[in-house]
What we know:
The protein is an alpha/beta fold. Helices cover about 25% and strands about 25% of the residues.
Amino acid sequence: xxxxxxxxxxxxxxxxxxxxxxxxxxxxxxxxxxxxxxxxxxxxxxxxxxxxxxxxxxxxxxxxxxxxxxxxxxxxxxxxxxxxxxxxxxxxxxxxxxxxxxxxxxxxxxxxxxxxxxxxxxxxxxxxxxxxxxxxxxxxxxxxxxxxxxxxxxxxxxxxxxxxxxxxxxxxxxxxxxxxxxxxxxxxxxxxxxxxxxxxxxxxxx
Length: 206
């Protein structure tokens, strides 16, 4: 739990600018960062250095700068203990693999908003969209097209389906579309909503 430093460790008057500088095992780069900050033309500022569980020489370096320049103020408390370690289940259990999330996403899209739809339009031909398309095809869906905003990709094909401009949505009337941002966001459940015109449905990850 974070506990603020006693008031006597700070000046009575607050500086005009406070620079919050989180540091974690940064002994190789911290010196250059502090030198750059302390060389600023505005003198009325402080650098609050937050040591977030460092295991190298970062704390000693911050203390050395603080002794030379009172504008550097160390705050050594660990503000948050992260559980992101190599042994966590999402890094060691195959059930958390991206492929499994995509397989589940394809399953629930086809069981929900894409149920009883023969063809699917994929929004954006990014890496995740391509992987999702593969899982949809394995589950029996037919990918009719990929929509993309890059004109250089128009007229090419992906997984046997054409890459088309997003403007064709205006002419679509009954084909559902599975939309993926192209980024790795497979851990969140898909949502769907009606999208004009016609009965076009979008399954988004935002």
